[in-house]
């Protein structure tokens, strides 16, 4: 059975005190809950709080911590950047690569993301590789071509063994903060398409084991409808991950689905 992951991307939010309180609230909210072995909870705080949040996450076996980004070089004169070995040294196990905001605001294209994926894999981290299309692409019916290109150019150079360190997160950028909503059926259609691409490249066994997350405004109200889709293996969650009262219920819904 492939892993199911409920991941919270805190983005550039929270002070240190707030981050510690949120992490502790999530861990406390899961205490005593029946969490299947296949369900993982991931918190991705701002970089200055990785160590503090990691210490809190150590209090629950199902909770892990991820970085929001890392540089493709292992060290060097890159002021303000974070290298994959630095994350490893903190006990971090996951890192986001290619988030839509990194692509849009920081100009991260296929080549840069390919290099970042290589750096993450070489360090033994799990890469949560983000892909997805903007509204104009969706309205033109070109979403599958765009996602295929993103995967092909930045992921599909990996060997089959290396690819087992990859989690894919599909982000329909057009459904985030636009007032438009992706239906569970639309999410499932893209996830099924992605899994088929992985199958064609790496075979059925690896495709069946690849975790594919949905990153389109998951919240308690729509978690059940999304998580019942056969190819949706969890969520990469933004706003709802910033409050215990909205993040923990999403985790609980995933656990119910796996019970």
Structural class: alpha/beta
* Low-confidence sequence ranges: none
Count of folded domains: 1
Helix and strand run: EHEHEHEHHEHHHEHHEHEH
Number of strands: 8
Regarding quaternary structure, how should these chains be classified?
A: single chain
Strand order of the largest sheet: 7-6-5-4-3-2-1-8
Report the mean per-residue pLDDT as an integer: 96
Task: Describe the protein's architecture and organization.
Helix content is 46%, strand content 15%. It is α/β, with parallel strands linked by helices and 259 residues long. The chain has one domain: Aldolase class I (TIM Barrel), CATH 3.20.20.70. It is globular.
Helices and strands in order:
Layout: E1 4-9, H1 16-30, E2 39-44, H2 50-57, E3 63-67, H3 84-89, E4 94-97, H4 100-106, H5 110-122, E5 126-131, H6 135-139, H7 143-154, H8 160-163, E6 166-170, H9 184-202, H10 204-209, E7 212-214, H11 220-227, E8 234-237, H12 244-258
Parallel strand pairs: 1-2, 1-8, 2-3, 3-4, 4-5, 5-6, 6-7
Quick recap of the structure?
This protein is 46% helix and 15% strand. By secondary structure, it is an alpha/beta fold. The protein has one domain: TIM Barrel, CATH 3.20.20.70.
Question: Can you tag this structure with a few keywords?
Answer:
single chain, 259 residues, alpha/beta, TIM Barrel, 8-stranded parallel sheet, 12 helices, 8 strands, 46% helix
């Amino acid at each position: 059975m492939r892993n199911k992951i409920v991941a919270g991307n805190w983005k550039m939010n929270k002070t240190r005190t707030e981050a510690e309180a949120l992490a502790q609230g999530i861990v406390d909210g899961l205490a005593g809950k029946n969490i299947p072995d296949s369900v993982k909870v991931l918190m991705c705080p701002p970089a200055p709080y990785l160590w503090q949040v990691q210490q809190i996450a150590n209090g629950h076996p199902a909770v892990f911590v991820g970085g929001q980004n890392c540089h493709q070089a292992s060290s060097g004169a890159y002021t303000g950047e974070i290298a994959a070995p630095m994350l490893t040294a903190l006990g971090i196990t996951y890192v986001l690569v290619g988030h839509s905001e990194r692509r849009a605001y920081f100009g991260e294209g296929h080549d840069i993301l390919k290099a970042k994926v290589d750096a993450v894999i070489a360090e033994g981290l799990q890469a949560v590789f983000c892909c997805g299309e903007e509204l104009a692409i969706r309205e033109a019916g070109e979403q599958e071509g765009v996602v295929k290109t993103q995967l092909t150019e930045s992921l599909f150079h990996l060997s089959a063994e290396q690819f087992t360190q990859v989690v894919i997160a599909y982000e329909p950028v057009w459904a985030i903060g636009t007032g438009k909503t992706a239906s569970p059926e639309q999410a499932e259609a893209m996830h099924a398409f992605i899994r088929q691409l992985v199958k064609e490249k790496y075979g059925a066994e690896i495709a069946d084991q690849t975790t594919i997350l949905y990153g389109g405004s998951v919240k308690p109200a729509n978690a059940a409808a999304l998580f019942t889709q056969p190819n949706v293996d969890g969520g990469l969650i933004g706003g709802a991950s910033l409050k215990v009262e909205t993040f923990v219920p999403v985790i609980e819904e995933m656990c119910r689905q796996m019970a």
